[in-house]
Structure prediction request, 200 residues.
Amino acid sequence: MASSLKFELSFIYLFLPLFILIFQSKILIFTLLYLVFIFTFIKLRQDKSFQFKFLKKKISWKITFICFLVFLIFGYLYVLFYDPSLLFSFPKNNFRLWVIVMFIYPFFSVIPQEIIYRVYFYHRYKKLFSGNLLLLTLLNLFFFSFAHIVFNNLHAILITAIASPIFSYLYIKESFFTCVLVHSLGGQIIFTLGLGRYFY
Prediction:
């Protein structure tokens, strides 16, 4: 059992990102994201030790607002430091597409990612690491940021490495929907501030 779990872990979280990186295909990114999402969702449904009602805990609005302000401030400073010409370039240059991205991003990107990288990861592999949350969170940080090598730039890896432990904390200590909402807001801030070019 342990060996099969290790293989699955390596295949999903290491091999697939490397596979996508080699072929450099945007279509492949989303195809495999949805295939893995479907796979993990089915596995969770089949697992009698997992209860989906656990995911229905309420959103912590206070923490969500705090995270929103922190992401907005640090994101703004990041763009100013790196390249001020990027600031608000997406909504200014293509407002209609920006609105579409703001709307679909939580549903077509964040939820699949959070099922794969938070819900499935913490439930499925906790036995491999004796339920050690610190170790699991560090591994989650590595795998989540590593997945973003598919975008072939340092910004995507660095930003997700910073955000990953925040998402993990929110999922473990608050609720799945708090994690999803904060992740969504973080991504929307990134796209709005002009850093979205490093995430697609």
